[in-house]
Amino acid sequence: MAFKYGIKLPGKNRKIWVKEITSKLYRDLVKSLYNNDTTEFLQHLSYIIEYVYPGIIQEDLNVVDKVLILLHTRGICINPDLKLKAKCPQTSKEFECTVRIEDLISRLESINYTRVVSHENI
Fold this sequence. Notes:
The structure is a single chain. This protein is an alpha+beta fold and 122 residues long. Helices cover 41% and strands 21% of the residues. The chain is built from 4 helices and 4 strands. It has a two-stranded antiparallel ribbon. The chain has a two-stranded antiparallel ribbon with strand order 3-4. A hairpin with a 4-residue loop joins strand 1 and strand 2. Helix 1 runs antiparallel to helix 2, helix 2 packs across helix 3 and helix 3 runs antiparallel to helix 4. It is globular and about 45 Å long. 12% of the residues are buried.
């Protein structure tokens, strides 16, 4: 039996149990980021969501629920910290910061968002 973890979806007002992603799926997602093709990247995201919980894409998830699934998956299967690099627009100095994915998740879980957004049938 594969490892599963629970995710609360505010848009569906329920908890779902999803499986973890493989290293290959994550690697392919990262590669699609470097490809600079928005459609391909969104297809990879949808594929990952469908992989961790088959049939969920047909349930018209809102964007918050999709982001929550992806953040939970990233936090549990890859790393609970998100390390970011940025450049200050005023000083042009580069800096790094670390964001705890669980902090993002707790903020998103309180959002009540029901609008469906699509891009080229995705």
